[in-house]
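Appendix C reproduces, verbatim, an entry submitted by the partner laboratory led by Prof. M.T., so that reviewers can inspect both the input and the predicted structure.
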Amino acid sequence: MAQEGVFQRLLRRGAAEGYSRPNVVDARDWFREESMKVVGYQRNQQRLIRENRSSLVPVLTRRSLGRMYMYFYDPKGKKELPYYDRFPLIFPFRMTQGGFYGLNMHYISPLLRARLMDAFYDLTNNNKYDETTKIKIRYSILEASARFKFFKPCVKQYLVKHVRSRFIEVDPKFWDIALFLPSERFVKAKKQTVFRESRKQIYGRK
């Protein structure tokens, strides 16, 4: 029998509390709060890989745009970067030669993450929250509305040659769980420093 992973475990607990669908508005707060309490993943992301083997994909394609993924990454030029995330949580939105652009949601605080994700739900192509659901992300759309102003620190370019694992494709019904799960792995800075620098970028403060 397959081991129950954190996504399934929280979904089961939510159902027992009367929240069977994490993405439904009245259930989001419960799943977000419970996800942040989970321990054992911030320094053991391999555990997430093991728990989600059936959801692993080898590469991202145009079909991947607007879906959520987690994976290991070792950035080019990492010695020059002030900090970086070794285990991104992204919504890819543009494929490039040898890589892709994605929104790494780990770069903003949980409060701003929640506000941005709430706005993103208005961009989904349907309300099924199954394998057909994705977010219709376009940079021009994000830049044009104040509702999405928290997205800029999240925009990152990733190179395929520097991806160090297969990608976990997160089922849409687990988006709010993955979004607040403490799985970030920042190198060269604590997450509080990253959040502070992101706020400066959002609000234009030096």
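The first strand starts at residue 56 and ends at 57. Additional entries are available on request from the coordinating office.
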